[in-house]
Every structure is written in C-alpha cells, then in structure tokens.
Design goal:
The protein is an alpha/beta fold. The protein has 4 domains: 2-89, GMP Synthetase, Chain A, domain 3 (2-Layer Sandwich), CATH 3.30.300; 119-268, Rossmann fold (3-Layer(aba) Sandwich), CATH 3.40.50; 273-349, Helicase, Ruva Protein, domain 3 (Orthogonal Bundle); 355-445, DnaA protein, C-terminal DNA-binding domain (Chromosomal Replication Initiator Protein Dnaa, Chain: A), CATH 1.10.1750.10. It is built from 21 helices and 9 strands. The strands form 2 sheets. It has a 5-stranded parallel β-sheet, sandwiched between helices. A 4-stranded mixed β-sheet has the order 1-2-3-4, covered by helices on one side. β7 (205-209), α9 and β8 form a beta-alpha-beta unit. The longest helix is centred in the middle third of the chain and has 18 residues, at 273-290. Bound molecules: adenosine-5'-diphosphate (ADP) and magnesium ion. This is Chromosomal replication initiator protein DnaA. Residues 1-74 are annotated as: Domain I, interacts with DnaA modulators. InterPro entries: AAA+_ATPase, Chromosome_initiator_DnaA, Chromosome_initiator_DnaA-like, Chromosome_initiator_DnaA_CS, DnaA_C, DnaA_dom, DnaA_N_dom, DnaA_N_sf.
C-alpha cells in the first residue's frame, strides 16, 4: 500500500515537497494501528513528523484500515518519535550530533551518467562537471538557474555524488534553501545557533538548492550571507541553484545578489526537440528493464518529444504512465494508445493560440491588411480570409462565438457562425482551400 499512499501524498503535498520529504521514506509495517515509517536521517524524520504526519496518517488510515499513530524511525534506530493523531507539536528532538544528518539524501538516479546533454544544457553540464572534478577552485560560487524541471536538482546531486567519490574525506553538504531555513529556525529555537554556525562553517563544499526560497526571509538571508562569505573567504566551493538569475530574485538583498553573481552564472535553457528525444530514449532503455517484453511502435517517442514541451519532469511522468498502462493492458505502445492514455497531458501542452495571432497569420498569408480582419469590407478577397480566420479561431481556441465576434470588430455571433459554416462547406469541396487551412494551422501550431 505504500506505493498507493505515496501517490496520494504526492497529490496532497505537491511534487517538490514530495520529492524532498516523502520520497525518501519507507513504510516498514503497520502493527495494532501504529504505522512505522523509516527515515534515512533524523533531520528528515523530525521535519516530516512535524509537518506531514497528519497527512500520512490520514492516507494510511484510508488505504489500510485503522491507523491511529505514525511512528518515525531513523535507520540507526537511535531516535523514535511518535506522532499520535491530532497531537500537539512535539518538543524538539535531541539535536543531531553528526553532520551526516545535515545533508539531504541524494537521489541515486541523479548522476552525470543519467544526465542527457544537449544544446540547452551543455554549458551548465560542463560547469557542473568541472566543479565536481575539483582541483583548484575555479568558479566560486557556481550559480545554476533555470525553469522548473530542467535538471537543476539532478545536476546538484550529480556534483555532490561525484565529489564524494573523488574526495571521500571532503565534507559535502547538500540541502535545499528550505532545509537551510528550517535548520536555522530550529537552532534559534533551541538556542544552538553557535553550533549551527560551526557546522556549516566546517564543510568543504556547500550546495544550496532553490535559493529563491529564502527571498523575503530576512534573518535566514542574513545567516546565509554570513555562511556564504565565510566559506568563500576560506576558499571553499559553493554551488547554488535557483529558478531565475541572481539579479532577478525579488526580495533578496542587493549585497547577496551581487555575491551570488561573482562566480560563474550559467542557465539551463528550455529543452529543444533533440534533447527531449534523447531523454526519452534513455528513459525508455531503463523502463525496458522494468517492463521487459513491451513493444514500442516507431514514432511514439518522436511524437512525445514534439508534443510535450513543458518540462522534463512532465515528459518523464508521461512516459512512465504510458509504460505502466501498456503493461497493464498487455498491449504494444502505439500512437493511438499514446494519444488516448496521455490525453490530459497532451491537452495541457497544446500551444495556446490567440485570436490575434490567427488574424495576423491569415492576413499575412493572403496579403491583406490586419485592419481588414476587423473592418467592414465585403469584397471576396478580404471577406474570405476573414472567414478563414473566424473558422480557425473557433477550431483552435476555446473562445465562444460571441467572444470571437467581439474580436472581429464587434460582429454578431450569428455572423461568426455563418463564416465558420461557410468555410466548413468550402473545405470539403475545395482541395486547395483545405490545403491552405492545413498549412495555416501548422504554422500557428509551430
Ligand atoms: P529542477 O530541479 O530544475 O526543477 P530536476 O533536476 O528535479 O529539475 O529534474 C526533473 C526531472 O527531470 C528529474 O527526474 C531529472 O532526472 C529529469 N531530467 C532533467 N533534465 C534531464 C536531463 N538532461 N537528462 C536526464 N534527465 C533529466
Ligand atoms: Mg529542483
């Protein structure tokens, strides 16, 4: 049931929090209404029991039958925190003495080997490799930024792992900015700020993921700034990621922004078709191990690479679902099945076309003025393209007829309906018109 519970929890807490907090947990058993959850570190169990124990309890109770308590265990079994249903927030757990508990768990799938390199991420990848290979500190800090799901966390984990392999004695500290803040706030509360500072200042490599999170959190920013400066002054490597460039992070102090920029700043660009296809091929190879014997029709991966452009996480999720579905149905993965099984994802990824864009493209194509689209002229050379634009607006946007009418110079919805019908009729009779419309549609979808 843990698999099912994880799915539900992911919906409740969101993908990112899920990946950070719930993903590393394992359900080890349910005994007399007490579910036992194993956590890799005490830090994690502490945070999860404080923030997510109610959610976990509810989900397990629903899926498994009566569960009244959730008990969190760290692997070492040294701490055992019990969260009863509706319990008050607990006293702080005894402070972790070992810094291994400070660093967030690394995802074993996020390695350099599994990272597909293409034009959009080659610079970020090269910089990450260089830093991971160590040697004299070259870029400090290394600042990686880019949109959601483009591989920032993947690269961060890959760097951390690589450094640990190459320099086992190095103290690598990887954590999200959210975790940094949590540790800091906890230290303030427990009056152990000195220990906190000490811990951070003895690391050889500090990696902070999603630093935009501490924007607007003044005292955490302040502490981060001091930690950062101390480490840089000692020549320690720092690696930071964010969802945007340093200069564009709002509510971040200028002196921090400028410190963040003083090393190397590289961005991960949105993926292109080739990169998406490469990622799909590599994921397919690993899925084949998981689902042996599954047949994949030619063209399916190309179709997905064309159609799902939002981010790599969505792309992976789509492929995962497709393989699971096909294996359940015991069928080959065909284009038809892909379209059926991923209808929602494909729809969400459809490029949104505006009526204005349609009018512009159609006017351009027929060499008429854009103003004629909304103007009153009734000559065929203008009226026909205008009707084609109405038709495409109806087909390609979710606007209603009255709305479309308004965008066409305040025409009545019956006029729009008439135009749409007219083109539908002509289309079936007139091959060259049909081809024109297909071409326009493709141009607009591109
Ligand atoms: P971010 O931290 O930028 O939001 P992640 O690093 O979490 O994104 O990436 C989201 C998912 O996409 C992860 O499962 C990651 O492994 C995968 N991914 C992203 N970029 C690549 C790539 N170039 N090659 C292989 N997998 C990738
Ligand atoms: Mg991330």
């Amino acid at each position: 049931i843990w698999g099912q519970a994880r799915e539900e929890l992911q919906k409740i807490v969101g993908t990112d929090s899920f990946a950070t907090w719930i993903e590393p947990l394992r359900l080890t058993g349910v005994d007399e209404g007490t579910a036992t959850i194993a956590c890799p570190t005490r830090f994690l169990s502490d945070w999860v029991s404080r923030h997510y124990s109610d959610d976990i309890l509810k989900v397990l109770d629903r899926l498994n039958g009566p569960v009244h308590r959730v008990s969190f265990e760290t692997r070492s079994q040294t701490s055992r925190q019990v969260a009863a249903a509706n319990s008050e927030p607990k006293r702080p757990a005894p402070r972790a003495a070992v810094d291994e508990e400070l660093t967030a768990p690394l995802d074993h799938r996020f390695t350099f080997d599994n990272f597909i390199v293409g034009k959009p991420n080659e610079l970020a990848h090269a910089a990450a490799r260089r830093v991971a290979e160590g040697g004299p500190v070259t870029f400090n800090p290394l600042f990686l930024y880019g949109g959601v799901g483009l591989g920032k966390t993947h690269l961060m984990h890959a760097i951390a792992r690589e450094i640990q392999i190459r320099q086992p004695e190095a103290k690598v500290l990887y954590l999200s900015a959210e975790q940094f803040m949590y540790r800091f706030v906890q230290a303030l509360r427990d009056r152990t700020v000195m220990d906190f500072k000490e811990l951070f200042r003895t690391v050889s490599v500090l990696m902070v993921d999603d630093v935009q999170f501490i924007a607007g959190k003044d005292s955490t920013q302040e502490e981060f700034f001091h930690t950062f400066n101390t480490l840089v002054d000692q020549g320690k490597q720092i690696i930071i990621s964010a969802d945007r460039a340093p200069g564009e992070i709002k509510d971040m102090e200028d002196r921090i922004k400028s410190r963040l920029q003083c090393g190397l700043v590289v961005d991960l660009h949105p993926t292109d078709y080739e990169l998406r296809l490469g990622i799909l091929q590599s994921k397919t190879d690993s899925f084949r191990v998981q689902y042996p014997g599954l047949q994949l029709a030619p063209g399916v991966l190309e179709f997905l690479a064309h159609r799902i452009t939002s981010n790599v996480r969505v792309l992976e999720g789509a492929l995962q679902r497709l393989f699971a579905f096909a294996s359940l149905m015991g069928r080959e993965i065909t284009l038809d099945m892909t379209q059926e099984c991923l209808a929602d994802i494909l729809r969400a990824n459809d490029r949104k076309v505006s009526i204005e864009e349609i009018q512009r493209k159609v006017a351009e194509h027929y060499n008429i003025r854009l103003s004629d689209m909304i103007g009153p002229k009734r000559v065929r050379t203008v009226a026909r393209p205008r009707q084609i634009a109405m038709y495409l607006s109806k087909q390609m946007t979710s606007r209603s007829l009255p709305e479309i009418g308004r965008r066409f110079g305040g025409r009545d919805h019956t006029t729009i309906m008439h135009g749409v019908r007219k083109i539908e009729e002509l289309r079936t009779a007139d091959r060259s018109l049909a081809e024109d419309i297909d071409l326009l549609r493709r141009l607009l979808e591109a």
